[in-house]
Structures are given as C-alpha cells and as structure tokens.
Amino acid sequence: MEHKLLEKIVFNTEKSAFNTEPKESFQIVVSDNKTKFNTRFNPHIQFKNNKSYEIALVNLETYYSFPNITTDNNHFSYSPHNTEIWYHMLIPEGSYDIEDINKFIQEKMKQNGHGPDITLSANTNTLKAVLIIKNGYHVDFRPEHSVCRVLGFNNKVYTNEYQESENPVNILNINSILVNIDIISGSYVNGQTAPTVYSFFPGVSPGYKIIETPANLVYLPITLDSIYSMQTTLTDQNGNLLNLRGENITIRFHVRQI
User: Fold this and answer.
1) pTM listed for this prediction
2) Could you read off the pLDDT of 119-149 as tens digits, one per residue?
3) Structural class in CATH, domain 23-66+174-257
4) Buried b vs exposed e over 34-48: b needs ≥16 C-beta within 10 Å?
5) Are the CB atoms for 184 and 233 separated by under 8 Å?
6) pLDDT tens digits, 68-102
7) CB atoms < 10 A from the CB of 256, how many?
8) N or C: which terminus of the chain carries fewer CB neighbours within 10 A?
9) Domain limits of the chain?
C-alpha cells in the first residue's frame, strides 16, 4: 500500500512539474510587397524534441489596393449623336466604385469634345447598374475585355435612354481574403485541405489602410520539427493570388508550445 502511495505521489509531482514548466512562445513577423513570398529564417527555428507547436495570425496590415478594374475588364466604347464613329477608352487599372467609373468616362468624353450624355449610377435596391443615354448616343459593350462584366450588362449595344443592367454588379470581386502558410495542418476550404491560417473581409473601402486584428486567436498545428523557410500567400475565395499593386503587407504570427 505504501509503495503504491509513493508511486502516486511521484507521478503527481512529475505531472505538476510538467504543467508548470514554462511553455515556449515567440512571434514571427513577415513583410513583402507581393502576395506570394518566402521567408528564410537565419538561424532556422528548431523546436524542442517530442513537443507540439501551433501558430495563429495576430495582426495584418496593408492597403486596400486590390484592383477590380484590370486589362481584363477595362474597355468602354460609345458613339455620339447616331453616328457610325466609335470612341474607345481604357480605364486604368485600379479600385473603383460605379461613381468612379462614371467620373472617368465623363472626363474622357469631355476631352473628346462631347457632353456628359452618358451617365452610370447604382441602384442600391436591386444591386444593379443604371445606364442613362441622351441625345442619340450609343454604348457598345461588345468589345473583348469590356467593363460590362463589372457593371452587370450584357455584351451588346445599348441605345435606350434608361437601361438597368440585366445582372447585379460585380464591383467587389473579392468576397474573402485567405492568409495561407505552408507549415500548418488542420484547415479546410470548400471541403479540401488547405494551408489557410486565417480569412477575413476588409472592413475599409478601397484606398484605405487595412488593419486586421482578430478578436480571438485561432491556433493551428505546425507540421514541422524545424522551420528553415515559410511560404506565405494571400488569395481570394477562389484561390486566386491578390494583386497588391506594389503596396507592402506586414503579417505578425504567434507561435506557442502546446
């Protein structure tokens, strides 16, 4: 009886010592102006033998610079006063709302010597775009890479004085930003394993700074015993790399021993 009691005391003492042993904990900060980059660690990170570790995103900072107008959807064409002459313009790559697109088109029309006889606006009730055409102007959304895909219009010529887009606008092509690192497990996206450590939607408008700080940290297990390098990628909800357009991004992670 005394022998068993002594073993129990020793076991509880060792267990208590293990539970009160300081757990390793440190942060990793990475920064770049691309959304797919590698960080090399010098010296490399070596974890303790027979110990498990996990990581969480603590903070992310960048600017909302992701373009919704690119060379894939920036073409706009119009014809004035029932003529057969078509004027073509290319909207510069950038982050636009419908009002911004309208301002650019009207400014270009003014430079061409035409009045503001074409107006684009948003119907916030139907989530569609509104096209108002005056004085016999025509708008042609047939050219390849037309802006109609953003505005919800079909690939055709519009002549009506008032026309609402057939489809909802697609002005926000990013529904979620996924932060991925290649050293973790335990994450699934659309039913498939993925190295996604965190996802969020920017709480600011295009052009403003994004400061994302999770209220509750979600830790995921690290799959390596040592880390020589780590690849970080930022994608949209469809797995497409984001375009920062040269803006820097800084991400802070927290690593802790389980």
Assistant:
1) 0.80
2) 999 999 999 999 999 999 999 999 999 999 9
3) mainly beta
4) ebeeebeeeeebebe
5) no
6) 999 999 999 999 987 889 999 999 999 999 999 99
7) 16
8) N
9) 23-66+174-257, 75-164
Average pLDDT over residues 224-232: 97
Tokens of 216: 């509750």
Q: 89, 41, 96: which is closest to 67 by C-alpha?
A: 96
In this structure, what token pair is assigned to residue 136?
Answer: 């016999």
Contacts with 154 (C-beta within 8 Å, 6 or more apart), sequence order:
141, 148, 166, 167
Q: Which residues contact 32 (CB under 8 A, 6 or more apart)?
A: 232, 248, 249
Which residue reads 């949209």 in tokens? Answer: 236
Placement of tokens 């102007």 in the chain? 137
The reported pLDDT for the residue numbered 3 is 55
SS3 132: strand
Write the DSSP symbol of residue 241.
B
User: Could you give the C-alpha distances from 89 to 7, 150, 173, 199, 234, in angstroms and in order?
Assistant: 84, 16, 22, 36, 31
pLDDT in tens, 166-201: 999 998 888 899 999 999 999 999 999 999 999 999
The residue written with tokens 């010296």 in the block is 43
From 81, 82, 132, 72, select the one nearest 106 (Cα to Cα). 132
**Which structure tokens are listed for 53?**
């570790």
* Strand extents, DSSP E, the chain: 25-32, 36-46, 53-63, 75-79, 87-90, 118-123, 128-133, 138-140, 157-158, 162-164, 177-181, 188-189, 192-193, 196-200, 209-212, 220-221, 226-235, 249-257
Distance (Å, rounded) from C-alpha 257 to C-alpha 58? 16
| Residues 138, 172: Cα–Cα separation, whole Å | 27
